[in-house]
Amino acid sequence: MATVLKAAPISQQIVDDLAKQCSLLKKDGCIPCLKVILIGEHAPSVIYTRNKKKFMESIGAECEIIKLAEDVSEENFLNTLKTQAKDKSVHGLFVQLPLPKHLSHIDVGQLVPPEKDVDGFHAQNLYKLMAGDKGENALLPCTPKGVMTMLKHAGVSLEGKSVAVIGRSLIVGKPLSLLMTNYNATVTMCHSKTSNLKQVTKSSDIIVAAIGRAKFINSEFLRSEGDQILIDVGINHDSDGILCGDIDQNDVENKCALITPVPGGVGKMTIVSLGQNLITAATNQLEK
Ligand code: NDP
Fold it and tell me: Which residue segments constitute the domains of the chain, with CATH numbers given?
């Protein structure tokens, strides 16, 4: 039976730590503050932003969700973003994606100043990641950072390990592949055009599923030794409408060494990473 690596005990430890750091910042006159721009009523985005606000407040930080109408003009949206970008009392800023169609050509990651880029999508932060940073200087994208935090807490060293990252998005697959490479893993980044996916996954010590397809990875993708580590990034609903990941957890639970659950795994750690990035951003801005 595989070890199930739950986020809750890991996140509790980090929450306590972040709350202490937050109160120290407040003593120095800095109230860590996150602003989130939410456009429209896209149901998952409303839930995600609400959860992020709840988390920030649980560590003692401020968080305001700035709600704009679905049909907000490009000019009004950009003005709102610029106002928050300039405001010195705002330490972290991001726009909840996806953007409505009429704004989807805007690369919002580049409009948030790099020092407030708690999502880790600004070119300067991504360049540092490409250059080998493990988070010493860069604000790292939250989901990859959360995956690394979980592996670290489980005592998994990446050095010399082979990893199959399935998915090459800018928010998960690509930055996670870079980050794991920076930790000396040998990473194969797979995608929908990878022709020998099962061969790659069977030969990997760690498999990360960031695909967006419910229960896509099953025991047919695993080798028979039962020694692999499975990281499930996916957030999907199965045919019964039940929340599930990209890995068929029931099918693989006796055929791997360790697995992250859905829910209660990487998703929870993504918000924790956002909190860590906010406190880092506030600390850096105070020191300036
Ligand atoms: P994207 O849709 O942007 O990317 C999906 C990736 O999966 C693409 O690179 C795609 O390949 C690849 N893919 C699709 N089908 C296959 C296939 N049959 N075989 C191999 N690769 C395939 O998704 P995201 O990266 O944004 O998200 C992935 C999943 O993670 C989703 O379920 C999402 O909800 C979840 N997620 C969870 C987060 C968390 O906090 N836990 C945070 C962000 C996302 P190609 O590039 O060729 O199209």
Answer: 29-112 (3.40.50.10860), 142-266 (3.40.50.720)
